[in-house]
Design brief:
Length: 411
């Protein structure tokens, strides 16, 4: 395979904890070069040799696995595809722990530093998407990336690849991109095409979109977390564990074990649970209403997190939130968008986007590709747009204006 490549990986698993009985049930690899061009992709279901766990989340059916290979049968193929590349994932610590456990069970561990030296697009969001939450959907919305087939390995890996390419576009001169690629290529450990290529097996495609749970909707718009990497990784596991509003005894025990493994005592873990619950409450109140079904769901989460039941009474009280400009509102005059301000475009304009960005730059503004809290204005072909960028702008209280405002006021 070509040298100096990123391997963007996503896995779907039977559960959350590779240290126990949970296994990988699907894996996808999207291969991308430094220019952000996808040069290859590969996906397959994996026979986990156990039940599939919470099928409502990943959507894999047992009948899809009848001819799927085991991870052990795929180990050599994966070594060949991953060797010499930079591993990338969204919440990479989750996928890396599963990959490490599976390779070890197969008796074919990868070099020790391969998994630990990868890039996590969730962690990189703190640098490039100030204000974004940790979910893949939230980060994709900031760029207007269409996340298709969420919770499928190929869908999530493909979106993560686009997300990484957008990061590189925002910061093309960051030396770490090339440094990691060079180092990975120099440490390639598997060169030969596997003698036995195991056929990949993909899941059946359904045109029906799975129902989105209340907690998943909230987790997609949780605010940026400013704690440590360890704490954020733990909260990301909570996102997954609570998505179906059910925490099995096995998951509860494994969460406690995970907290212990990463150095969180019971007091610290409960403090994170309190923080997590308050973020969920704030997200639920974002539309100004806390409906009865939301209260019921928050009550379930409260119990699962081991927090006092009376906290639901506090949650019912409307929080003091900033009054954002209404949808489509525009600044009163040009002086409210000072020179140097970040301006983002979305939708099909009457002129090429590159031409508009050039004019904005000449007028003293800074064209930007992602919606972050530092953006002053979103110019939309349709101010009522339902695009990911427009959604993020409304979440942040960023004014959204039409193209007329661009020509009549800004330029």
């Amino acid at each position: 395979m070509s040298r100096e490549l990123f391997s963007i990986v996503d896995t779907e698993t039977t559960g959350l904890f590779p240290g126990g009985n949970d296994r990988i049930a699907e894996i996808a690899i999207v291969t991308m070069n430094r220019a952000g061009e996808v040069v290859g992709s590969w996906e397959t279901l994996v026979n986990p040799q156990r039940d599939l766990g919470k099928q409502a989340i990943h959507g894999i059916q047992s009948r899809d696995l009848l001819d799927a290979p085991t991870f052990g049968q795929l180990a050599e193929e994966l070594h060949w595809r991953l060797s010499g590349t930079v591993l990338v994932g969204h919440n990479l610590s989750f996928d890396a722990r599963f990959l490490d456990a599976e390779f070890r069970k197969a008796g074919a561990p990868v070099p020790g530093d391969f998994l630990s030296q990868g890039l996590c697009t969730m962690r990189l969001s703190h640098r490039y998407l100030q204000g974004a939450g940790r979910s893949l959907q939230d980060c994709c919305d900031s760029f207007g990336i269409d996340l298709q087939q969420a919770h499928s390995a190929f869908g999530d890996a493909s979106a993560t690849a686009v997300l990484l390419s957008r990061y590189m576009e925002l910061d093309p001169d960051e030396p770490d991109w090339d440094h990691r690629l060079h180092a990975a290529a120099d440490n390639r450990w598997f060169d030969n095409v596997p003698a036995l290529r195991v056929p990949a097996v993909v899941r059946s495609r359904s045109t029906d979109k799975p129902a989105v749970h209340f907690l998943e909707k909230l987790a997609a718009r949780l605010p940026e977390f400013s704690g440590t990497e360890t704490e954020e990784n733990y909260l990301a596991i909570l996102d997954l564990a609570l998505m179906d509003r059910y925490l099995s005894a096995h998951e509860e025990a494994q969460l406690l074990q995970t907290a212990s493994d990463i150095g969180l005592d019971k007091k610290a873990a409960l403090a994170l649970h309190e923080h997590y619950f308050q973020q969920l409450v704030a997200a639920a109140w974002a539309d100004g209403v806390l409906a009865d079904d939301e209260i019921a769901d928050l009550s379930k989460v409260l119990a699962l997190l081991g927090l006092p039941a009376q906290k639901i009474n506090e949650a019912k009280k409307a929080p003091a939130v900033a009054q954002y400009l209404p949808k489509g509102a525009a600044p009163a005059n040009r002086h409210e968008v000072p020179p140097g301000s970040l301006v983002v475009l979305t939708g099909d304009m009457s002129r090429a986007r590159s031409d508009i960005e050039e004019q904005l730059a000449r007028a003293g503004f800074t064209p930007h590709r992602a919606v972050t809290k530092k953006v002053a204005l979103l110019v939309a072909a349709d101010p009522d747009s339902l695009s990911g960028k427009a959604k993020k702008a409304r979440d942040y209280g960023i004014p959204i204006v039409g193209e007329d405002y661009l020509w009549n006021v800004l330029l």
